[in-house]
Amino acid sequence: MATKNFIEELEWRGMIHTIMPGAKEQLEKEMTTAYLGIDPTADSLHIGHLVGVMILKHFQMCGHRPLALIGGATGMIGDPSGKSQERNLLDEPTLRHNQEAIKRQLAKLLDFESDAPNAAVLVNNYDWMKDISFLEFIRDIGKCITVNYMMAKDSVKKRFSGEGDGMSFTEFTYQLVQGFDFLHLYQTMNCKVQLGGADQWGNITTGTELIRRKLGNEAEAFAITCPLITKADGTKFGKTESGNVWLDARYTSPYKFYQFWLNVSDEDAKRYIRIFTLLDRETVEALTAEHEAAPHLRILQKRLAQEITTMIHSREEYEKAVEASAILFGGSTSEALRKIDEGTLLQVFEGVPQFRIARAELGLPFVDLCAEKTQVFPSKGECRKMVQGGGVSLNKEKVADPARTVGEADLIAGKYLLVQRGKKNYYLVIAE
């Protein structure tokens, strides 16, 4: 067994909400298999999933065997926990596509490939649910759990008390289906623990109850949940104005991903560095003390953004994101500007005023380009005055002469010019 104790590791990281009695002893007794369910509603995980994935990672690092369960069958039903609306249901080809994409992401954090006894396994509940008939299910599973027991769960009670549009029978059965997953994994893979968010407690305990009722009191199964992650101001974690922060670079670029972590509040950074990185306790405490001594340096945010961007994307993407950030916020050079790819450049300057010119207009003096062909300056006189004062840059280089020509050689990525007025005002000129 590994030296690290799983429960202790999660406790200092603030990642334990509730532990069922006996779970701790089970983990100390032997290598144990645990599973965590992931909803395959998209072909990428978002950072809301990361808490669960990090728990699986710690579980594996502490010598135990993690199962990542893709909720193919349950994704076709919809989970009422924490929702006031029904969700969209998936067809099988979409489900399989999403599953493959999620596995590739999980493989960055979990060891699926080695021959170690605790190598991670990916399972999909659709594989064992699809062949079960309705009659079989209500005969073998439905009779084990009373409606009274199911109604007592918070996730169900809330929906009956007038939140949203009520609850369909399909959703009501969700906890039975999830409970059946636990029973199936207990019987086929000796899985004794289910992990999940605090909102899953009702569903998970239905599973432990089902195992006990089906297999007798000696069949021991346990639940461990983690707190739901919020922001210090109480708003939902992982959402930005433009929606979810995804792990797939197609949906959230490494630059934007990096920026998300860099911009969290001090309070949040103190919690997140424990939850979303693998840094040990000493390092985290030292970084926190350093941060508190000089909060303006944002030491925690920088290290958090570094660790998590490197883990999800790569060291190279992290370094590119740092360079790209320096272009907008710091003393970067024209060389660095020319190195960044077009996609990142457009993301960095998203929201910056843009002007389009015809390629044929290149070769003009700088002052004509900025005051006639674009509205970077309201007049040529103002442009000349600011250039003389040393307050204007083209592609991060000071413009010394307002009459200098701007040609093809100045273009970044073959089509962009970046004009800067003063410290904060950027303009992107696109030559088409």
Care to describe what's here?
Helix 13 runs antiparallel to helix 16, helix 14 (266-275) runs parallel beside helix 16 and helix 16 packs across helix 17. The protein has 21 helices and 13 strands. The strands form three sheets. A six-stranded mixed β-sheet has the order 1-6-5-2-3-4, sandwiched between helices. The N and C termini lie far apart (63 Å). It has 432 residues and is α/β, with parallel strands linked by helices. Helices cover 46% and strands 13% of the residues. It has three domains: 6-226, HUPs (Rossmann fold), CATH 3.40.50.620; 239-348, Orthogonal Bundle (Tyrosyl-Transfer RNA Synthetase), CATH 1.10.240.10; 354-431, RNA-binding S4 domain (Structural Genomics Hypothetical 15.5 Kd Protein In mrcA-pckA Intergenic Region, Chain A).
Mean pLDDT: 89
Main pleated sheet: 6 strands, mixed
Alpha carbon gap, first and last residue: 63 Å
Strand tally:
13
Summarize this structure as a short list of keywords or feature phrases.
Structural Genomics Hypothetical 15.5 Kd Protein In mrcA-pckA Intergenic Region, Chain A; 3 domains; Rossmann fold; 432 residues; alpha/beta; 5-stranded mixed sheet; elongated; 21 helices
Topology:
Blueprint lengths: L5 H7 L5 E2 L3 H7 L3 E6 L8 H15 L3 E6 L1 H4 L16 H15 L14 E4 H5 L4 H7 L6 H5 L2 H7 L8 H4 L1 H16 L1 E7 L3 H15 L6 E5 L12 E2 L2 E2 L9 H9 L3 H10 L5 H13 L5 H14 L2 H15 L4 H6 L2 H7 L5 E4 L8 H8 L6 H9 L3 E3 L2 E2 L17 E6 L3 E7 L1
Parallel strand pairs: 2-3, 2-5, 3-4, 5-6, 9-13
Antiparallel strand pairs: 1-6, 7-8, 10-11, 10-12, 12-13
